[in-house]
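2024-03-11 09:14:02 DEBUG pipeline.ingest accepted 1 chain
2024-03-11 09:14:02 DEBUG pipeline.ingest length=349
2024-03-11 09:14:03 DEBUG pipeline.predict start
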Amino acid sequence: MGRARRARRIAATAAYGGGGLAAAGAALGALGWGVIKTEAAIARRLIGRPFDTSPDDDGVYGAGHGTPWEVVVLGDSSAAGMGADEPHETVGAIVANGVAALTGRPVRLTNRAVVGAESSDLERQLANALEDVMRPDVVLVMVGANDVTHRIERAAAVRHLEQTVRRIRALGCEVVVGTCPDLGTIEPIQQPLRTLMRRWSRDLAAAQTVAVVEAGGRTVSLGDLLGPEFRARPREMFSADQFHPSAAGYARAAAVLLPSVCAALRVWGEDTGDRAPEPRRGEGVNPVAVAAGQAVREAGTEVSPTEIAGQDRGPRGRWAVLLRRRPGGAPPAGGTAVTGAHEGASSAG
């Protein structure tokens, strides 16, 4: 079965609350599970002791004027910034600084991500965030890795993500989801576990894309974004625990998320607007499951809802546009003068 069909089935199961895929997945996972457990134990010995905390990056970023943009971050350790030493090194802080620089307006960042969180924790995180921010301008979500490593039923994980996205969209807020990274790129993980982790994480990422787009949000594939650079520069890209990204690794992830956050806010220039796809860049409009299967193959690929001739659905499901946005170099929208990123943050309390 191709990835697009698997993504459709996982997302459909999530939508209707079924569990048939769980049994199939469990049967597949049981094959050679003794070998896989051995490989996992070796990986744990090679990986350093994990951190217990992440930097507190809540605050106001940028030195511009006007009403601050409200940006909320939800998700797991990657969203929380586990492995970063300073608050300004997290993905949320880097994105906040970028939006502030490109718009000339400050950004108030509210991060409710939790180390070790699964998709089932997102609704609680959102509720906690809404106690402080009644109506965010955009919510950035990074989740999925723990659903894979904890062997959570994929349909259940996707259902929790979709419900959270629908609640956010019902508030009139934009949503950008960084989908599950390719865990098969992590060096301490050996075969055959590495191949299984790659398949599980990519299938989950594709199903996440289908569900998020159906719910009205947009996704950005993180895929194997850090794999090649981690292999080439492990001391620089890994944090002290040899598992989570360092500040340099988070900066790489933030660079591909920032254009889509700007697009959601309708700021920053031509490449982050609602432009037509360019076939020469591998972009196009397809049924969402097809777009999802394509997106997982190239990190930094955005998938979002679209219409054809005024129709949002075709015979094979919702229409989605796949874009590969440039992560830098675009001029700001609306003639706003930008001289560079506003560094640092002032504490919000």
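2024-03-11 09:14:41 DEBUG pipeline.report Residues 193-214 form the longest helix (22 residues).
2024-03-11 09:14:41 DEBUG pipeline.predict end
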